[in-house]
Amino acid sequence: MANQIRKTDVEDVDFLDAEELQSDGSVVYLTVPVVSTAAATRTVVVGTPSDGEGIRSGRDHPVEVGDRVIITEATGELGNGTFTIASVLTDSSFVVVESIGSSTGGSADFLYPSGASRIGIDPTNLNFTAATNVQAALESIPALPQATQIGDLLASRDGVTFSVVHPVVSADDGWLSNADGDLLIEGLD
Predict the structure, then answer these.
(1) Distance between CA 145 and CA 153 in Å, rounded?
(2) What is the per-residue pLDDT for 188?
């Protein structure tokens, strides 16, 4: 018999939902009460979401490694901050990457990371980045120069560095150039 994939072989973490891909990293997908945070283990214990499903096994909102959580209103504010999920231990607890203070109470908002950070790319033959995901590649692109007048164009010889090319102002001797003296097009005879 040929290899077959069964439903039990597939987990949500293996796929990206449309909401995850569209995320810009700022949309909250789940809010739960915080029970406590523990500095020594970087563990956060939370209450049950309003739909009664846990944070690990929830069908519509499983918390995953790499998701962000913003904790607010913790007693003494020691547990407040923005953290990255390192692991999900149970339906009511998870570990964060960053240091966290010990506290009780508060609220936790879970956010997907930017969808582009979850789409891998092969940087082979890319001359502008060594990034391995789309988000990092976009962030590594140098800032483009700003156009200063209507009709300005951006030009590049290497696909990495760009310069502003101003509109054509003269056509002497079959050559087109702009006011900066940049050669634009060689005329056809």
Answers:
(1) 10
(2) 46
Residue 85 scores a pLDDT above 80: yes
Q: What is the pTM of this model?
A: 0.60
Residue numbers of the domain that contains 79? 28-111
Q: How far apart are CA 103 and CA 75, in angstroms?
A: 6
Q: Where are the beta strands (DSSP E) in the chain?
A: 28-38, 43-46, 68-72, 81-90, 93-96, 103-104, 107-111, 153-155, 163-165, 168-172, 175-178, 183-186
CA distance 62 to 179: 59
What b/e readout covers 46-73, taking b as 16+ CB neighbours within 10 angstroms? beebeeebbbeebeebbbbeebbbebee
Predicted pLDDT at 8? 75
Q: Does residue 101 share a domain with residue 33? A: yes
Do the Cβ atoms of 151 and 138 come closer than 8 Å?
no
- Whether 8 maps to a domain, the answer reads no
Residue 130 lies in a domain: no
Quickly tell me which residue has 């156009």 as its tokens: 147
Contacts of 18 (CB under 8 A, 6+ apart): none
